[in-house]
Amino acid sequence: MNVIETKIPELLIFEPRIFADERGWFMESFNQNAFAKALQERGFEVPTFVQDNHSMSSKGVLRGLHYQSEPFAQGKLVRVVQGRAFDVAVDIRKDSPTFGQWVSVELNAQTHRQFWIPAGFAHGFVALENNTQFLYKTTNFYHKDSERSIIWNDKTIGIDWQTEGLELIINEKDAHALSFIQATNG
């Protein structure tokens, strides 16, 4: 497994080794020891995953920016198993030197990359193809009363969603989410 560091040290991209031949391919989609080693080598806490989620989105669906408030904050290890998505994580940790900064990565069914997003980050993505299927491993259970959202196009954050030519589909909740300043001053 190859580990790719990003401009925000806690956000890591994992590229699995793919073993392919005329029959198809094989990969380890998750290995606790390899994941733990990658985090420990960088001085990060190793989480326990407690829940897996699976979503399907049509081309142009934008979900996010979502997070859960303490004490129900979630870390997420995300990947796309079918289709393509432009995935984003935003640092919402007030005491962080990278507060308000974001990292993006394209996740798709060809590269099988995974994106590690620890607790303290808001997360969102836009589906770039129909039938984009997203898998999430989470470090905490879903807790409805702790669910929060930041508006996807917040000017303070300034995410370049690379959506030119896409007709966006955004649900009511995400379209009326709080601004970054409102969400992080609460």
Automatic annotation (TrEMBL):
Residues the UniProt record annotates as site (Participates in a stacking interaction with the thymidine ring of dTDP-4-oxo-6-deoxyglucose): Y142
Catalyses which reaction(s): dTDP-4-dehydro-6-deoxy-alpha-D-glucose = dTDP-4-dehydro-beta-L-rhamnose
Keywords tagged on the record: Isomerase
UniProt GO molecular function: dTDP-4-dehydrorhamnose 3,5-epimerase activity
Active site (record annotation): H66 (proton acceptor), Y136 (proton donor)
InterPro entries on file: RmlC-like, RmlC-like_jellyroll, RmlC_Cupin_sf
EC class (word): isomerase
GO cellular component: cytosol
Enzyme Commission no: 5.1.3.13
One GO term of the biological process aspect: polysaccharide biosynthetic process
A Pfam family of this chain: dTDP_sugar_isom
Pathway: Carbohydrate biosynthesis; dTDP-L-rhamnose biosynthesis
Quaternary structure and interacting proteins, as annotated: Homodimer.
Entry similarity comment: Belongs to the dTDP-4-dehydrorhamnose 3,5-epimerase family.
PANTHER family: DTDP-6-DEOXY-D-GLUCOSE-3,5 EPIMERASE, THYMIDINE DIPHOSPHO-4-KETO-RHAMNOSE 3,5-EPIMERASE
Biological role stated in the UniProt entry: Catalyzes the epimerization of the C3' and C5'positions of dTDP-6-deoxy-D-xylo-4-hexulose, forming dTDP-6-deoxy-L-lyxo-4-hexulose.
Protein name: dTDP-4-dehydrorhamnose 3,5-epimerase
Organism: Moraxella cuniculi DSM 21768
